[in-house]
Hints:
Structural class: mainly beta
Helix content: 10-25%
Oligomer: single chain
Largest sheet: 9 strands, mixed
Order of helices and strands: HEEEEEHEEEE
Number of strands: 9
Number of helices: 2
Radius of gyration: 15 Å
Shape: globular
Distance between the termini: 17 Å
Strand content: over 45%
Amino acid sequence: MGLELAVACNPRRQGLTEGSQSTIRRESDALAGTAILNRSAEGTFLSLEEYDEALEGHCLVFGWFGGDLAPGSYRISRLAYRTMEEDLASGSRSFFSWGAVRAREENSMLVAESGTLEIMTVEQGRITGSFELTGFVIDDGARTDVVWAGSFSAVEGEG
């Protein structure tokens, strides 16, 4: 999962996301940030992220390995080879999601297992929507089940 995070999370593009916004609601708090949609040979990635000067912050990624995106409701599935094979066999596609929070008080990794991503609008250079996912975080060796939900207004950009 580290390589996928490295591809989709990028503190250096912080200034390229002007006009975007995201909110991630968690049980303990909410994380506000930017949102960017980028397409590459590896897939299409929607990254909700925010970093400070010390590169502390968060990144929540939704990866899509299907065709063009359109308004509608999409399933979020656990990123696993078996799930990808099942998607190929059924002809349906899932978003895959993962994330991380890096800060003095928290150093966690999110593994998303299920959920829904709702795309409201797809316009030239912008995509809006909301999500709710269930999964677990690993923080300091402890596993905690979580539900994260939120919304985004993402600009299209480069990785």
